[in-house]
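Late entry, written up from scratch paper. The run itself happened at the end of the previous shift, but nothing got recorded in the book at the time, so transcribing now.
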Amino acid sequence: VVAKRTAFSQSFRRSDGLLEVRASAQPIAFQSEPGKFELIDTSVSETKQGLAATKNSFQVLFGDSQRGVTVVLESGERVASRPAALDGVAPERTVQAEVDKSDDSVVWYRQVWPGVDVRYTVRSTGLSEDVVFTSAPAGAGAVTFAVSGAELDAAWLSPAPQELRSGDVAIPQGSVAASSAMTRSDLQKGSTDQLGELAAVRAAAASERPAGAVPTLAARGELAGKVRFGPVVVTTGADPVFVEDKVASPLVRSTVVAAGESLVEVSADRGWMSSLPPAAFPVVIDPDLAIGPTW
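Output as recorded:
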């Protein structure tokens, strides 16, 4: 019964005349026009705008690796993310987006750097992002994403997602500014001079951690509750095994003011990653990028 469809339920008229309502914890439909709910379709296909997922209250547009992925929210606001650097080194080539052959909700950017893929999954509630190491990195394996369209703040995510409080983390005055000196040209040159300042910021943030909370980055202003990085998850092997305490929390590394981009870095423990046997790969670092109307 289409007229009784809601964002979280479908209704069916049974043969005995009774109405059966099937509810979902995740949204299954979106309001395409006043009073009309259309079923969500997370599949990615070729459109006039290129590869895109458009059958939801938001749209996801996939450009090449230089342009990255853009989420267009129902309000018209745009948030974009692109892989910017591996250990401070920008990608040497441009990679085209490729829809997964077995799951058309998944899009790959293969070998953005040697041995490193970036994977995106379109979900009913937004977009998620993974870094997939197919082999051990030569360096630390710190991947930086450039995020535009949203200003990010450090925040703690309590066990209940609704308790996320942007701005609860006390960062010493000047610490972020000290790490903001990196520019786009620094990325091209492979600069890593800001790592010491980043460590100081991480340590300060850890000292303010509420019980049971995990570190994240969250958008402020009008996009609060619509964009978040973290908590970070690491898995190993073809049959993913969750690994604890082997990841550095996401952090705003710097801001390229001219381009309006925040640089977000995620990485696993270097010594642990380099000690893994080949059979342990792929190693997936999931920064839990959540962009969408809810997360």
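The first strand starts at residue 9 and ends at 13.
(Scratch paper discarded after transcription.)
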